[in-house]
């Protein structure tokens, strides 16, 4: 199956927003304070050369797991690291999603009910394979963009530019930019699952353009949070970007407009988590030749089990120390090695054989 380049790029939109929302934003805000927007701008700039590297690694005919299999002697170790990293990211996002819903939207509902509510559509979508996600995510994208636009247009009167000052004071832009690149940019590596010949009219210029546009969305969120609430109040609030929606009032009949508009974040989580799990499945099948449906049930069970035992202390350790290490190794160091080895005679022979067998 071939995909339209816009449909492919929309994954970046959902990925960027889901990884940014909730814990991540609070953390980089604590590091860079009023300079958070500057950190995001620097992160966007750094994302360009990283995307260019990924474009060099991205193959025309085979996915990233198959490519690793062709160029690494111990490919099972490389692919296993990538699979474990993606499993941790998917679990982290699933915990974020269920915790957000439990605390802010359905606080009287048992958490296990909330988990089941999200698990069922994820399993259903993945049983239908990735095509079901591709069909649905474009519709969710347009709904999300509409909600986002409405939200931030009605927030404009609340903006106070004085809250953005002083800049470059008592902040650590370097650390926040580093975390931004690790959590927001490097996970784009998972998009190498789709070879270039499966994407219509693929060009790296288009991908970079879409990426900049989609990352500007989270810049707007950060700008609004800091300019409306200020740094201190933003750090005090739990999920300040959600509390912003409580300030919106444009229809007297809609008492909980913040709840309605927060659906856009549930779309972000759902699409990204579902894609990450699909990515895991493809990696497991390529590397260990496992059964798709049995592996899906096992992965979902692991994510649900870990989600139930996680708490804020564990999440903080995971976020600050464990996940960054795994992400850098799996999504940056391994691709760099693959880029260097990708010109080897063994890889070229394997690629030609794969292309011939696929053609037959």
Could you characterize what this model shows?
Helices cover 76% and strands 1% of the residues. Strands 1-2 form a two-stranded parallel sheet. It has helices spanning 5-20, 23-32, 36-57, 64-71, 75-105, 111-127, 130-153, 173-185, 204-236, 240-243, 257-261, 263-288, 292-309, 312-341, 345-359, and strands at 3-4, 199-200. It is built from 15 helices and two strands. The protein is globular and about 55 Å long. The protein is mostly helical and 360 residues long. The two termini are 16 Å apart.
What average pLDDT do the residues reach? 86
What's the story with the biggest beta sheet? 2 strands, parallel
Helix and strand string, N-terminal first?
Answer: EHHHHHHHHEHHHHHHH
Low-confidence stretches: 250-254
Strands side by side in the biggest sheet: 1-2
State the helix count: 15
User: Beta-strand percentage?
Assistant: under 5%
Q: What would the principal axes of the Cα set say about the shape?
A: globular
Estimated helix fraction = over 70%
Distance between the termini: 16 Å
Question: What's the gyration radius in Å?
Answer: 21 Å
Strand-pairing-aware structural class: mainly alpha
Number of strands: 2
């Amino acid at each position: 199956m071939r995909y339209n380049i816009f449909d492919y790029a929309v994954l970046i939109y959902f990925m960027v927003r889901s990884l940014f929302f909730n814990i991540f934003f609070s953390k980089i805000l604590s590091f860079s304070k009023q300079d958070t927007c500057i950190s995001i701008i620097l992160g966007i700039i750094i994302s360009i050369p990283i995307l260019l590297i990924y474009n060099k690694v991205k193959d025309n005919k085979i996915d990233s797991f198959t490519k690793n299999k062709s160029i690494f002697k111990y490919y099972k170790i490389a692919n296993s690291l990538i699979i474990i990293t993606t499993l941790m990211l998917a679990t982290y996002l699933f915990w974020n999603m269920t915790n957000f819903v439990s605390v802010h939207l359905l606080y009287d509902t048992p958490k296990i009910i909330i988990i089941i509510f999200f698990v069922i559509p994820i399993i259903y979508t993945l049983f239908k394979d990735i095509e079901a996600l591709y069909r649905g995510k474009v519709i969710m994208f347009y709904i999300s963009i509409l909600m986002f636009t409405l939200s931030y247009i009605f927030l404009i009167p609340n903006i106070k530019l004085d809250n953005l000052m002083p800049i470059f004071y008592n902040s650590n832009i370097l650390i926040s930019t580093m975390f931004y690149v690790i959590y927001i940019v490097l996970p784009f590596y998972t998009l190498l699952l789709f070879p270039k010949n499966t994407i219509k009219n693929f060009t790296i210029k288009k991908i970079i353009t879409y990426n900049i546009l989609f990352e500007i969305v989270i810049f707007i969120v950060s700008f609004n949070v800091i300019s409306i609430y200020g740094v201190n109040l933003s750090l005090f609030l739990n999920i300040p970007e959600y509390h912003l929606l409580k300030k919106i009032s444009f229809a007297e009949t809609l008492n909980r407009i913040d709840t309605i508009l927060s659906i856009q974040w549930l779309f972000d989580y759902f699409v990204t988590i579902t894609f990450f799990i699909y990515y895991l499945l493809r990696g497991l099948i390529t590397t260990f030749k496992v059964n798709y449906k049995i592996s899906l049930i096992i992965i979902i069970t692991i994510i649900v089990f870990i989600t139930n035992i996680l708490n804020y202390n564990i999440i903080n350790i995971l976020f600050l120390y464990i996940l960054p290490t795994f992400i850098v190794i799996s999504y940056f160091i391994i691709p760099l090695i693959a880029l260097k080895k990708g010109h080897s005679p063994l890889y070229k022979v394997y690629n030609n054989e794969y292309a011939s067998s696929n053609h037959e």
